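Complex record, two chains
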Amino acid sequence: MSRGAPGTGTAAVEVEGLRHLYGSREALAGVTFRVSRGEIFGFLGPNGGGKTTLFKILATLMPPTGGTVRLLGRDLQGDLRAVRRGLGVVFQRASVDPKLTVAENLRHHGHLYGLRGPALRAQGHALLTRLGLADRAADLVETLSGGLQRRVELAKGLLPRPDLLLLDEPTTGLDPGARRDFMAHLHERRAGDGVTILLTTHFFEEAERCDRIGILHRGRLVATGAPEDLKGRIGGDVVEVRAKDPEGLRKQIRERFGGEPVLVDGTLRLERPRGHEFARELVEAFPGEVQGVTFGKPTLEDVFVHLTGHRFWGEAPTGGGGT
Amino acid sequence: MTGVLLPAGTLLWREVVRFCRQRSRVVGALAQPVLFWLLLGGGLGASFRPAGAPPGTGYLEYFYPGMIALVVLFTAVFATISTVEDRQRGFLQGVLVAPVPRASVVLGQALGGTTLALGQGLLLLLAAPLLGIPLTAASVLAAAAVMVLMAFALTSLGLVIAWRIDSTQGFHAIMNLILFPLWLLSGAFFPGPAADDLPGQRGGRGRGAAARHLPPGHGTVRSPGVPRRYPGGPPEQPLATPHFEPPRCPGIVPLPPVSRRR
């Protein structure tokens, strides 16, 4: 299998004008992006943003309503089996059989990809060793912890030595430590095999560890870029103000300090170069009004709010046929 | 060809391993027919003598082939419930994104159910001598061939239904609607209406008649008076086949009509 160095050769994923409808509800409204070979690319978005729909289309589980998708240089309209040969897929829901052992799961999965015999055993064993699962190979999957079960899923996804690994919210349900472990394994595999990794997530710390991310909101890709670059789009610090009368305070701040504070879920949000000084001035200027002020360096959550005008959490999914 | 057979084989093997790991399934599948046999055979045996049976044939002997049919029928059809479970639990999604023809996925599942059903059927068949029912190598082979055909057809029927149902409760509800009439009217349980008496029958005396006229004493066990058809039902269903004799008509195991209609 040939793999180009990151950023060279044909892109691993090329998506143009991708649309998908569930009935009349538009889950994806014209999404366009490119992922280079060897890159770790994350789709960040709240539930209902379109991540899972995008994942299902890329994983060849569902044809899109419109647009073109090329994976590893092959069009999804063409020979699907050829596309699937180059893909490894890790689902959000478990796809391992809990009644089988770790090794049995890998063996059956390998057979589905045409692997067999000593080569399959050697490959499976090497993978389990790298993922720290070698001593659990003979255990039934149902006896493993949640974190280890996710690692078995990862082993399944990596077993056919894919050029492109797709993961749908792979660490959902794991504690923060297990989530960090899982991401560390992904980085190791990228460094070791050069595999291109595309994942969806709603964890900011996971998105921070991607080379580039795309922010999905209501079926649209509102931004793509390296996490640091996206955060750099926000000037200085983010100041959040809680007030008795946020709308009244918004006007007063605008009159006194200029700028355009944004009201998000009852909290006033401003971007200022020197947040700590501004916070002090604000409390002194409106002593009876301000109930609390926080400020800090922008996070990806701030980037999301900045770009969409919505809170990341607390938005109800729009429902209907997955997200 | 390995592109089809390797995946199909691996799915078959997984089905068998899963079955053996779930002790409740093994116990249930074996205990249920034995229980039926003892309760129904014991209860009805005293007052019921199958019409046309050779003298000395008791109900338990009459019902033994029917019990094997029951085991094959239920095991084959309920083995396909794992398709519903695989979808619910997520295993199927991993299979569907693999570079495997869909035909080999279906073949693997159908052969998995067939293997389970055949295995259980054979186990019971080979226990027949313990109950004084004589067997010969030829009769075992012939019966095994009939069981393979039955099991494959019934697993395929189960798959057609399981593929469209997304809950195990729904699967049970639909399958019971289909299974119990098939089983009760098959003649495995008690002789049904004679084929000759049914209106609109073509061909007159069918296999039931042929079975009745086979010479006794060559080690075959016959269920006499087996109806081949029932009103509104599928033609030539193989469900009553555990005569331990070679099938007369190789075409008796069509895909059940439900799968044709869908």
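Note: Residues 137-162 of chain B form the longest helix (26 residues).
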